[in-house]
Structure formats: structure tokens, C-alpha cells
Amino acid sequence: xxxxxxxxxxxxxxxxxxxxxxxxxxxxxxxxxxxxxxxxxxxxxxxxxxxxxxxxxxxxxxxxxxxxxxxxxxxxxxxxxxxxxxxxxxxxxxxxxxxxxxxxxxxxxxxxxxxxxxxxxxxxxxxxxxxxxxxxxxxxxxxxxxxxxxxxxxxxxxxxxxxxxxxxxxxxxxxxxxxxxxxxxxxxxxxxxxxxxxxxxxxxxxxxxxxxx
Amino acid sequence: xxxxxxxxxxxxxxxxxxxxxxxxxxxxxxxxxxxxxxxxxxxxxxxxxxxxxxxxxxxxxxxxxxxxxxxxxxxxxxxxxxxxxxxxxxxxxxxxxxxxxxxxxxxxxxxxxxxxxxxxxxxxxxxxxxxxxxxxxxxxxxxxxxxxxxxxxxxxxxxxxxxxxxxxxxxxxxxxxxxxxxxxxxxxxxxxxxxxxxxxxxxxxxxxxxxxx
Lengths: 213, 213
Fold this sequence. Notes:
2 copies of one chain form a homodimer. Chain A is an alpha/beta fold. Chain A has helices spanning about 15-25, 40-45, 65-80, 90-95, 95-110, 125-140, 160-165, 185-190, 200-210, and strands spanning about 1-5, 30-35, 50-55, 80-85, 115-120, 145, 175, 195-200. The first copy, chain A, starts with a strand and ends with a helix. The interface between A and B is large, with 37 and 37 residues.
């Protein structure tokens, strides 16, 4: 249930290689790689059972729809099997829900069957905006709604996961990400309804799990 | 000499409109708009003498070259006349200078004559990496090298502007951005060799200038 995040802007190629090796060893759901690393991660993770995912419009969500579509198309072509896109935060905050929904739908279509996780970046939203963003994502065909990028002032909270879980249909999953560093945090967010977790602290979390078992 | 920055991920449409009106009133060089606002800013600033610029691969520089090219193409088509791109920080830190240079060159070509400013994001670089990034940008046809995005832990410094100015040919300008909030900061960076300044505090800076004059 963990997407191992390798999204920091400073990561070198050697650090991405080490992160992919760790992800394969830990048998996580996926590596969430930067777009520039999808080719590398796809090569390193081939045959390991760990998927490669990547991000689109990340982390501000402020690129145009044609740019997000091209990012998605290239990512899928290069081996990405999950797409974590940032919705257009500005337009959600401006109440332009048709624009938000059309942007997501275009990415879902470009993903050609690969599941799309829609990042709301809750740090910047009111509860009403979170609900509106979740519903737009569901209408547009998102597989997941996701709390955060990990690059805003706050990340996943139990209250937000509960709200998002209560908002979307059972067929849409909730991914919690941002500031998740302990097994207890994962368990609290799981109890709140999240079924996927984005973290850089994957090894720490799984070590804790092994110790408790 | 000021590019008025409207890059914050939370800005609403109304805030972008207000920012463009302010930029027109203050007669700055350009508005540096988010990609999703280029159409709006181009409409609002038509005939004012203030150019519209935008950002590519912003702020992490970690998108693929094809995605940066498409972002640039769409931006120019929609009215952007200056392109501030983030180089591939990861590859610069990994010593893969051919990849860094090819990525910049592809954006310069897609910009079709509009000047390209290459953001190094000095916060994450050693001095040797800053020099290597500047030289790659110059070889690739950049019009400017630029210190920072404004979204990293540190922004423009006098020492970095001096280093960048000493590194690139006289035909390449230096843009200082990130944390520039006072006229004194602008004057110090100007003395160090910068000829363009990115700021959100444009009104404050120009009020100070008027008061001193």
C-alpha cells in the first residue's frame, strides 16, 4: 500500500538508483519517480513487481492542460503505470470547477488506462474546496484522490482523509501523502480510509511493522 | 528591469487580474505568470507595453525535455514573450552536463526567438555546479541565467550574482530572483551585475525608489 516517493528536486541519479533498489527489496506498490527518472526507474524495476509511477503538473498544478497531457503521454510511453497529477489549485480556489474537471479528464484520457491519482494540495484549500475538488476528480474519472504533494506547508491529516473518503464513491480510493514518517501515522490514516500512502520514510515504516509483528 | 512575479500556487484569478493591473500601472518589464494564466495575462496586458513571461519545468526542473518543449510551445502560442525555465537540477548535480545542455537547447529552440532565462536554483548547488550550469546555459543559447525560483530555501545572493556574472559572456544577462523585497536589495544585486529582477514586492520597491528620488 506504499508508493515510495523519490520526488525531491535535489536527488541525484545515484540516489534514484538506490531508492529504486530499496523499493524493490521492500516490495512496495510503486516508486513515485520524477518525470525525468521514469526511463531509469522503469529499467531498474522491470521484473520486480514494483510499478513505476510519476507526477504531472507537479508540485504547483499551474501548468496548462496541453502541457499536462503531453507530460502524461510521455510518462506512459516511457513506462509509468500510475500518474499522480496536481489539479489546477488556482482555478479550484477561484471556483472554476468546469476548468478543474476538464483538466483532470484530459489527463485521465492521456493516461490511457493507467490509474490517475488527483492531488488536491489540501494545505491551500478550505473544506468546501476539498469536497469540490474530490467531486470534480471523481466525475473526471480519477482512480484516487490524494491529499498533498509533500511540498506545501502541511501534508496528510486524519481529518482530511476522513472528509475525502466520505466525499467520493467507494470505487475511488484515497491516497495520503506528505509528512508520513511513522507506522502509527500510516495506521491512523488507514483507519480514516486511506488505502495508499506516499512516503520517503518507507524503510522506517516497514522496519517498525516488522518489529511489532 | 523588474519582472513582476505572479507565481504562487494559491493565487486566484482575481489576484492575477489585480497583479496584472498593478504591473501595467508600474510599467515593469514583464509579468512572470504561471503557465495557466498566460492567456489571461496576455489579454490584460495587451497594449500596455508590459510583456508576459512564464515559467517552464517550474519549480523543480524535473520534467522531461519533451514536456518542457510542449510547455514552451503552448506558452509562446498563448502569448508569452519570455520563458523562465528551470534546468534539470538533478542531472546538473549528477554531473550529466550534456543532458542539462540538451534540455535547455530544446527549450530555446521551442521558444522560437523569445528570450529564455535559465533558472539554476542555486540553493541546491555548489559553486562549481553553478558555474557548470551557467556555461551549459550559455552554450545552449540562453539569454539570461537566473539565480532562483523563489520556492527553494534560499534566493538571490550578491555572491551568486557576482559568480554568475563573472562566468557567462557579456551577451548573457543575469536575473536575480527569490527573496528580493527592498530597493536596497535590488541596488546591491544590480551592483553585482544583475540586470533583471524577479520580485513579488514590486510596489514596495518602486515606492522606495520614488521616495528617495
